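Task 17 of the worksheet. Students: predict the tertiary structure of the chain below and write it out as structure tokens. Keep your answer in the requested format; marks are given for formatting as well as content.
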Amino acid sequence: MLSGVINFNKSPEISSNRALSILKRILFQNNIITKIGHFGTLDPIAEGVLPIACGRATRLFDYTLDKKKIYRAFFFFGTETDTLDRTGKIISFSDKLVTEEEILNACPSLCGHVMQTPPCYSAKNVDGVRAYLLARKGEEFALPPKKVYIESIRLLRSLGSNEFEFEIVCGGGTYIRSIVRDLAAKLGTVGIMTSLIRTASGPFSIENAVTVEEFAEDPLSHVLPMDILLEDYPEIFLEEKQIRALLNGLGVSEKGLSHVDHSARYIRVKDKDGIAGIGVVNDGLLRMKTWLK
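Model answer:
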């Protein structure tokens, strides 16, 4: 089974799930059978980096949640929609003209570890139902706020009356549409996201992202080793008998692991064939947490 990661450049014309369907079809047409999944959705109108896992790399989703993401976001103040972006139904207006100075003063208060309420039009689950499905039906519900990390919100330039471009650096799970809502509230107005480009996600950048057309020409050349997702973790090379011990649920003594940083949350376990899995050290023993063979 093909395993690896695709640094896909999603266009704003397709959803994240539609992108998966397109890549699946291309792989099937090239007689490549594997399961695929994305590491978190991009908004439908957004474009840019959408990392997609193939095969055993789909087991790595939980290890990518804390990866840093960088966006170029375009906000317009003075109009609010039910979706918090340009695709929604207008629900309110404000005639306030926002200044760059006001924005610069307000942005720092939204940074750090903050509680953020997701948009109603989101993929969050409400009693087993996607929030956006309930929102489309006009049903009333409330999504609880969640803690997210926003490293910085930097004003890049003014694009005209009440429209601005920002660079936003944040952790996983952050909603950019929620940022425009919360920033607008700080400014005493309302706002929407008009466009969004994800320029980086973890180790992937938009400069190296592959388009549908490029992927279709030679799919295998664009599937990267899944080890790229784990570069922040220390690695250890084990012999075949040690791998067999881990496979049987046994631990490997830390005596042979002196060069490994035991304080690390996870350890990349490798053998002669490459990445074998992700391990953890507890009570002096290395055990496998996630197998990738």
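Marker's comment: Helices lie at 16-29, 100-106, 131-136, 176-186, 212-217, 240-247. The first strand starts at residue 4 and ends at 10.
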